[in-house]
Specification:
By secondary structure, the protein is of the alpha/beta class. It contains seven helices and five strands; from the N terminus they run H-H-E-E-H-H-H-E-H-E-H-E. The chain has helices at residues 3-8, 13-25, 60-63, 66-70, 98-111, 124-132, 147-155, and strands at residues 36-41, 44-50, 115-118, 137-141, 159-163.
């Protein structure tokens, strides 16, 4: 934030767009996670995304969460030992990630050279899609505890900003 902006109490553009990601995330249909993403080019939003079921498919809030269903033994409601937020049960997920939705909406021409804002750390698949889409800068709502993801993005020449808003 510039000194002039600080003296007027204005937030920076990065803070504004990250705040908007949190609002977009409220549209998410996932029962386990609310993620929102914006792609911004030359100060204008060119695409947005939130996580949820693919077009035409029932939302988890209607049909139930396949991740949770696959996280239990078939003959009981006892959790499988490997069932956790990053476990193999996530391969059953019908959801499309916020970043994936935003990149599809933007297409390569609008994504190339743009800034991507997201309210949480990208997964490794989304990080690779960000690289392939030639995003120039990624702003992530912090804190950061996924150094491998940020390292991958930086290795690809992408500027990564972790923005901790209080």
């Amino acid at each position: 934030m510039s000194l002039a902006a600080e003296s007027r109490g204005r937030i920076s553009f990065d803070e504004m767009f990250i705040s908007m990601c949190h609002i977009v995330a409220e549209r998410a249909t996932c029962l386990r996670n609310k993620s929102g993403c914006l792609i911004v080019r030359d100060g204008a939003i060119v695409a947005l995304g939130y996580n949820g079921a693919p077009k035409g498919m029932a939302h988890c809030s209607v049909q139930g969460c396949l991740c949770e269903e696959s996280a239990f033994h078939a003959d009981s409601r006892q959790p499988l030992p490997e069932a956790h937020d990053q476990g193999p049960n996530l391969y059953s997920c019908r959801g499309v990630h916020a970043i994936q939705n935003a990149l599809i909406q933007a297409g390569i021409e609008k994504a190339r050279g743009a800034t991507l804002y997201v309210n949480q750390m990208p997964c490794s698949v989304c990080a690779k899609l960000i690289i392939q889409a030639e995003i120039e800068r990624v702003v992530i709502a912090g804190p950061s505890n996924h150094n491998a993801i940020t390292a991958l993005l930086r290795q690809a020449g992408i500027t990564v900003v972790i923005l901790e808003i209080i």
